[in-house]
Each structure stands twice: as C-alpha cells, then as structure tokens.
Design brief:
Layout lengths: L5 E6 L19 E2 L2 E2 H11 L4 E6 L5 H6 L3 H9 L7 H9 L2 E6 L10 H5 L1 H4 L4 E5 L2 E4 L5 H13 L3 E7 L9 E5 L9 E6 L10 E9 L2 H7 L11 H11 L2 E5 L4 E4 L3 H13 L2 H14 L1
Parallel strand pairs: 1-4, 1-6, 4-5, 8-12
Antiparallel strand pairs: 2-3, 6-11, 7-13, 8-11, 9-10
Helix pairs in contact: 8-9
Length: 294
C-alpha cells in the first residue's frame, strides 16, 4: 500500500485581492480567528498523517518561514509570564512534522498555480504527493478527515490523481472549474476533463473543483511540457486534464465538511464566521451580535 507522507502548499501568489494589507506579508498569513490561514492547512495535513511538508512562497517573502520557526526570545517571555499555552498549537506542529521546507519560487518560473509544484520538484522527488492551494480551507469535524478519505482512495485504486470537489448551487458554478465525468461503470467518479467557469446551462456538473489533490509525480512532466497558456500562466487544471487523458483521474466529493475559499475579503470573512460558529467560546456571543446588527 502506498503511504503518502509528502505535501506541497502553493503559497506563492501576490494576493492582489487583499491589497494593501498583504503588501508586506503573504496572504496565507491573514488570520482566521487566532491562527493564520496556512496554519490551518498544516494542521489538516497533520490530521491526515502527512509528516513532510513543503511550502512554496513568493520570492523575497520571509514571513511564512519566520512564523513556523521557533522564537527563543518569545518562548522565554511566555514562560516568564505563564503564557506558554498560547503557542501550544505551533508546538504540536514542531513535534509532528518531520520535515518542513520553505522554497522560494524562482523568478524564472511563470506565474500560476502549477508553478509551485515545479519549484518543489527536488522535495517531491519520485514520490506521489498532496497538493494544496494556500487560500482554500476545509471546515470539518476533525482536521484532515476528508484528506484521509482522498488518500485512502488513492491507495485503493492507484490512479494518477484524486481531485476534490464540492457540490455548489447550479447558479454558482460559473465562478468555478467543474468536472466532466467519463462514462466508466468501473470508476463512476473518473474525470474526463475539468472545464472552467461554464454557465449553468452548459456546465457538465455542479461539482466545483477545490484546492486538494493527491497526485503521482507524473504531473511534473505534464507541467513542464505545458505551453504557457491563459494570461501567460501555468495552470494546474491543464496538467490534471493531461493526466485524465493519458491515465486515470478520480474525483472525490466532500460529504462531511465544507470547502471555503479565503482568497478575497468577503469569502475570508465568511470563513471566519463559519469557524467561529463552531467554537463554543465564540459561538454564543457571535450569534447574539449578528442578531443585533441584522
């Protein structure tokens, strides 16, 4: 059985929809309640048994690495003031993650959500790996539950990729990429192609693609031979489509949880509210406040 231990988080974007606040730091460090967005992704990976994590960040950006690096002066201050519990969640990461690499995306790579995979090629090696988009969250009862299901599907069927989707209302599918399925009785969830932002009347399904993938390292060669396309970028969906044409790509849909993107201020705010409503220490006060202002 394949035991996948590696994951790459793509966090090299400019985050223009969050300017000016992210002028001096990565959008993945924008907090969701008391933790930066990217920490929630790392906790999800740990929950699924991933112990080797590579974060590909924007060239010149140092905040993500600094955040995940222990700070002796801060630890001393917290100890002296009996506040060490504030860093418990980070200590758990330091204890459970065997390898954490930080790679600056080279300037000679084109922009696009597939470029971080090429930047992490030396980390990936010949192994299958998990690929995450840095501004996607999955809100679920237990971090890593859905990703564990994806890994189990990969182990069972040995496809070239397992990609995650969530059903959305048909009127919203125009905002996302969605799945067109192959007619394969053996694998009813086999993907024929990913199509981008189709109107509801033309969309082949209402299964919207989200930023969770379990993939063979074959995808690296697909990215390398990909002609620079749409807006001079390298697109992950194009590489996935190539895998679907030459091999087997399976779809897995979230059933016990909810995908929320945090890539723009409004959806980031909605994610904060959704997570806060699940926190007993916040939920009652938040509900009362929302009733007052609505």
């Amino acid at each position: 059985m394949t035991k996948i231990k590696k994951a790459v988080i793509a966090a090299a974007g400019r985050g223009t929809r969050f300017l000016p606040v992210v002028k001096s730091y990565a959008k993945e460090l924008v907090p969701v309640l008391a933790k930066p967005n990217i920490q929630l992704l790392v906790e999800e990976l740990i929950g699924a048994g991933i112990s080797e994590i590579c974060i590909v960040h924007r060239n010149g950006e140092t905040g993500i690495k600094n955040y995940f690096t222990p700070d002796a002066d801060l630890e001393k201050y917290l100890k002296n003031n009996n506040k060490t519990s504030f860093l418990d969640s980070l200590r758990e990461i330091w204890d459970k993650v065997k390898i954490m690499e930080f790679i600056s995306q080279p300037l000679d790579l084109p922009y696009g959500n597939a470029s971080p995979a090429l930047a992490a090629e030396s980390f990936i090696g010949k192994d299958p790996f998990v690929y995450l988009f840095g501004d996607d969250l999955i809100i679920e009862p237990k971090p890593g539950q859905f990703l564990t299901e994806m890994l189990a599907t990969y182990d069972k069927f040995h496809p070239d990729a397992v990609m995650a989707t969530q059903q959305v209302p048909w009127e919203e599918i125009v905002r996302y990429g969605c799945i067109k399925y192959k007619n394969n009785p053996k694998h009813p969830n086999q993907v024929e192609t990913v199509v981008e932002k189709m109107p509801p009347d033309d969309a082949p399904s209402n299964n919207a693609v989200l930023g969770r993938f379990v993939v063979s390292n074959k995808i690296l060669e697909n990215i390398k031979k990909q002609a620079i396309s749409r807006d001079n970028e390298l697109w992950w969906a194009d590489a996935i489509n190539e895998l679907a044409q030459t091999g087997v790509v399976l779809n897995q849909t979230i059933k016990h949880g909810e995908w929320m993107t945090t890539g723009d201020p409004l959806r980031w705010l909605k994610a904060n509210i959704a997570i806060a409503l699940q926190e007993p220490r916040y939920s009652a006060d938040l509900k009362e406040f929302m009733q007052k202002i609505t």
